[in-house]
Amino acid sequence: MTPSPPARAAVLTIAAGRHDHLRGQVAGLARSHRMPDLHVVASMGDDDLTAGRVEGLAGPWTTEVVPVPVGDLGLPLAQARNAAAARAEELGADLLVFLDVDCVPGPDLVGTYATSALGQQRPPAPAIWCGDVAYLPPLAPGEQLDLDRLEERGRHRDDRVRLEPGDTVRECDLRKFWSLSFAMTPQDFRLAGGFCADYVGYGGEDTDFAQAVAHAGGSLTWVGGATAYHQHHESTSPPVQHLEAIVRNAGVFHERWGWWPMEGWLAAFEERGMARVGAGGRWEVAR
Question: Is the pTM here over 0.85, yes or no?
Answer without folding.
Answer: yes
